[in-house]
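Input/output pair, single chain:
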Amino acid sequence: MIEKTKQRVAFFDIDGTIFRSSLLIELVEALVRAEVFPVAAAEGYKSEYEAWWNREGTYEAYIEAVIKTYLHHIKGVHYGVLADVGRGVVAVQRRRVYRYTRDLVQKLKREGYYLIAISQSPKTVLDDFCVQYGFDKVYGRVYELGPQDCFTGVVVDEHLIRNKAAIVNRVFDRNSELTRQESIAVGDTDGDIPLLESVENPICFNPNQTLYQHAKLRHWEVVVERKDVIYFL
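Output:
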């Protein structure tokens, strides 16, 4: 039985798990359209994008190229400029989510779960996106600010945000009112395996091949949403 004073916790990856795209990708493309980033910035991930789109490369390689592009071009950009563009991205993209995970978030919120979002996207845009779904805590990439509130291109505590299991442990170590009992995590790629291994009830949603194979070995729940159909495998 769960202690009455303890609150259950659910961890959600965001990009590709709740949001049907990547907030970072949408942000970078919006920064290019707004001429904050040069048009040539898109060349930094064009080949990886085409390889992924043609099913000749991986999504992981594509997103890493986008991250590298963002890190390079964010240097010298004022925080306020990024925040304004980010709010515009969320205004357009905020409802482009998967039905299964959207409804699961709402269900767990009603049941009193403490909801935590974890993503490799910039925390600035994540905060705006996640607030509408009632998340209690958001972990995303935080970028260092230099003089005049301009970005330096340095990621603050990158070792932490890349290690989702460490975030889970940090949450429970620093919040005695939370319990690991009946904890839930939802992820979509093999990068989420450490996160999924850290909870009692892992859910693999629209998993890539590596995560799917791992899930079947571990007998984890696998859920796939395609068009208007949700499959439980």
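The CA atoms of residues 84 and 125 lie 10 Å apart. Strands lie at 9-13, 114-122, 137-145, 151-156, 184-187, 201-205, 221-226, 229-232.
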